[in-house]
Amino acid sequence: MTAPFYVSPEQLMKDRADFARKGIARGRSVVVLQYADGILLVAENPSRALHKISEIYDRIGFAAVGRYNEFENLRIAGVRLADLRGYSYDRRDVTARGLANAYAQTLGTIFSSGGEKPWEVELFVAEVGEAAEDDRIYRLMYDGSVADVRGHGVMGGQSEQIDAHLTEHYTDGLDLPAALQLAATALGRDTAEPREIKATDLEVAVVDRTRTQPRKFKRLAPEAVESALAG
Amino acid sequence: MLPEGFRSVGGTSFAEFLGDQAPQLLPSARESAGGELAGVTHGTTIVAATFDGGVVMAGDRRATMGNVIAQRDIQKVFPTDEYSCVGIAGTAGIAVEMTRLFQVELEHYEKIEGATLSTDGKANRLATLIRGNLGLAMQGLAVVPLFAAYDIDAACGRIFAFDVTGNKNEERTFHSVGSGSTFARGSLKKLYSESMSEADAVTAVVQSLYDAADDDTATGGPDLARRIFPLVSVITADGYRAWDEAATAEVADRVVAGRMSRPDGPSAPLT
């Protein structure tokens, strides 16, 4: 009988992390920005059918990069969790923090359990508050770690160049067209030569605190994106 | 970690999900009490009418508990999504809970599927929820909602009535449910015309609620002393809108003023 090779736990975790990170870096990036009226989510996504950005609840938006079937599974679980909590308590009792916690637990368990391959996903969970200071944006990593995002964030693809561009040009209190222009330019910085991304290849949504409806999430139609980018 | 059921593939219905994960939260989870219950709040009359470009729904404000008025300013018409609303008559506790579930059901489908249900799909979902309540209805805890929606595809307002077994019945013109519905329907029959404007349709439903309150003890008429008037909802191509309360008060004041000289209300031509 041959003894299995010994692999140290450090090496095992590192291999799993590398695997997940590679998968996530293959796709296109998603950018999140706080602007004057709320939170803007922008993804480079030519598909009209498969969304990377979605509504979870009244004040909570969701964005993801990585493998579609995996983050779609988490999105649906999030909608179910939020709707169940809102139905059994009150709509105000559904928070991004609770949701981020549930996601962190789930991703963490999958990452460290030997049986399943690690999930190649990263998520933003974004919640608008009454004022910009009360906005909460969480970034969930493939291993279940959670980070707070202030101002702007980016994940997936070649995120470092994009993040550098955002850090350089971002200011608080941008209006929607300015924020959208910044996000679109930043997304085009992922190659050595900056490229321009067509409005039709952008998936854009806002969680807008000034909306009168209780549901603050809104997708922007391609025409609206186009006019904002042109203006 | 999110439980297994949260991550299962396929289901778009919140009610079914609730049945799997937390069945005690379903309206139908109530234990059967056996025999007639005393001290249960009942909602009374709801009316709805289509007009050129939409549909209007209104309810009186009274809730009763036997011979006692339980509440004078209850809300009985609720928006269920951007293009639909539900008015409830019958056992208030179950009806309000069912409406809440229906609201989440529609929103849940919309978020999971990324598309809204068709108007008929919505009405069928509501019928299923009502059917689940049949056991309680047999004990006298019936819920009889009235569903109104603006159908974007057909570009018109539509009204659906249900019975306790979940039988769905579409009304093209006007309908009423609840204890005063017989009188409200008789009244609307004489006042209604298909080419009505929105303002006329609102006046017609307020008139019909006045007639219902006139002949049915459980239906509340306009409360002039407390300034409590019917709540009116309107759905058009622009979506759901609660009719401004001050404007409804004005309509109700006009109706009441007319009744001062003619208590039975406007008369229709004989032929």
Automatic annotation (TrEMBL), chain A:
Annotated signal sequence range: none
UniProt xrefs under NCBIfam families: 20S_bact_alpha (TIGR03691)
Regulation of protein activity: The formation of the proteasomal ATPase ARC-20S proteasome complex, likely via the docking of the C-termini of ARC into the intersubunit pockets in the alpha-rings, may trigger opening of the gate for substrate entry. Interconversion between the open-gate and close-gate conformations leads to a dynamic regulation of the 20S proteasome proteolysis activity.
Taxonomic source organism: Aeromicrobium halocynthiae
Family of this protein: Belongs to the peptidase T1A family.
Subunit annotation: The 20S proteasome core is composed of 14 alpha and 14 beta subunits that assemble into four stacked heptameric rings, resulting in a barrel-shaped structure. The two inner rings, each composed of seven catalytic beta subunits, are sandwiched by two outer rings, each composed of seven alpha subunits. The catalytic chamber with the active sites is on the inside of the barrel. Has a gated structure, the ends of the cylinder being occluded by the N-termini of the alpha-subunits. Is capped by the proteasome-associated ATPase, ARC.
Pathway involvement of the protein, from the record: Protein degradation; proteasomal Pup-dependent pathway
Protein name: Proteasome subunit alpha
TrEMBL record, chain B:
Propeptide: 1-43
Regulation: The formation of the proteasomal ATPase ARC-20S proteasome complex, likely via the docking of the C-termini of ARC into the intersubunit pockets in the alpha-rings, may trigger opening of the gate for substrate entry. Interconversion between the open-gate and close-gate conformations leads to a dynamic regulation of the 20S proteasome proteolysis activity.
Pathway field: Protein degradation; proteasomal Pup-dependent pathway
Predominant subcellular localization, coarse grouping: cytoplasm
Catalyzed reaction equations: Cleavage of peptide bonds with very broad specificity
Top-level taxon of origin: Bacteria
Pfam families reported in the protein's UniProt record: Proteasome
Stretches of the chain forming a coiled coil according to its record: none
EC number assigned by the record: 3.4.25.1
Catalytic residues identified in the record: T44 (nucleophile)
Subunit field text: The 20S proteasome core is composed of 14 alpha and 14 beta subunits that assemble into four stacked heptameric rings, resulting in a barrel-shaped structure. The two inner rings, each composed of seven catalytic beta subunits, are sandwiched by two outer rings, each composed of seven alpha subunits. The catalytic chamber with the active sites is on the inside of the barrel. Has a gated structure, the ends of the cylinder being occluded by the N-termini of the alpha-subunits. Is capped by the proteasome-associated ATPase, ARC.
Summary of the function given for this chain in its UniProt record: Component of the proteasome core, a large protease complex with broad specificity involved in protein degradation.
Name under which the protein is recorded: Proteasome subunit beta
Organism in which the protein naturally occurs: Aeromicrobium halocynthiae
